[in-house]
Amino acid sequence: MRISLSRRGDYAVRAMLALAEHDRPDSYLSARRIADRTNIPASFAPHVLADLTRAGLVTGSPGRSGGYRLAEPAASITLLRVIDAANGESGAPRCVLRGIPCDPGGRCAVHDSMAGATVAAREALAGTSMSDLARERTAG
Prior knowledge:
mainly alpha; two-stranded antiparallel ribbon; 2 strands
């Protein structure tokens, strides 16, 4: 089984990692610099940064010396929050076998196993902060 991110989720994690590594009070990174540092297409970076701003993870400042910075300490921003900001929180569970929303009146044979795996994955993502990832990246 392979767990992967959407492209938008991937770019959001990259952008947040760049901001976590740059984390300095009163210092901003432009969308262009974030895109350059993370290999996010320059035309797509503002869309990802808008998602992160709407989610309250990033604040922006307009103007020539403006840009983006973390809205709160990197240690309090989890990987799960970043992914949910980019992809939206998962809504109604989908039936693995039928590919439609789960039937509230009955469950398929794999429902409980898949629901448990989803909960475990979300818990693991919620247990990883952006500061953890930035620290791992600089140590490696």
